[in-house]
Model the fold of this input.
Amino acid sequence: MNPLRPASPQPASNKSSQVPALKTIGKPASVSPKVTARALNTDRQSQENSADRGPLSALSAQGSSRPSQSLGLDGPSNPAPKFPRWNFQAKQFPGFYPAGKDRSPAYHFDKILKDLPQIWARPWSGDLSASKGKPTSSETYGELFKRIGTETGTDPFALAAYCIFESYHSGRQTFNPRMQEIGGGMHAAGIAATQAQDWKGKKIPGLNQRFPATIKATASVLRNHPEYSLRCLAAEFKHTYANKGQDLAKTFPGVAYPAWKNPAESKGNYGTQAQYVSRAFALYQGFQAADQRP
Done:
């Protein structure tokens, strides 16, 4: 289900409970990301058949964010978050079209868009232990995305839309924060399909910890703590958005596949750049609408 892409991120951060211990360091992370080409694996069906795997692709991120409270399974209680809203010039992107009815072997957007309100309001910890009982945190996905967006200075709706491409589980009709895909020297793990091999031993953006020193242990942390995967994603989004003229229409392809030079070239489940941007915009608007529901 997910296209794998090699990345070369910088420090990412996350905290773990019941997973390998993280190293604590003196200062919060301030990362300057580098990105490289990523290869896509389009075998989405094999992902869907595994409860621990999620549908779409993998990436790694980096950047800088301010220090913040780290989230264990208890979750924080934050007052009204103040997160940025970024510029998304999707309709000016060459080849843009309304993608709400798109259907491909990997995505059925009409159905996915209908799922977004319940996903936004769903406690994320319930998906960490789908077979282990009730959620251990009441924080919803919407609250999580907005909290990370506020703490890192990124648009939470962009982060949420991106994660649909990486870890939407059509069987459960929600995110799969425990997704993982291994192959070709890559190990994608977590809600944003973060590349564990690129983040091992590095700072978690915005926190005082480092990931473990090994790929396997880093993947375990990412799969048990969606906050950390999102922090890595936020760092890369922030870096790419700044370098792409502050336009999410150009940022999405740049984050998904940094070596994507030819817009007409189809990249696995992403499709062409016009398809990917058009679909991302539909998801972005869908999450905005979900957030505005009573």
Summary: Confidence is low (pLDDT under 50) at residues 1-21, 23-75. Residues 66 and 206 are 5 Å apart (CA to CA). The chain has ten helices and seven strands.
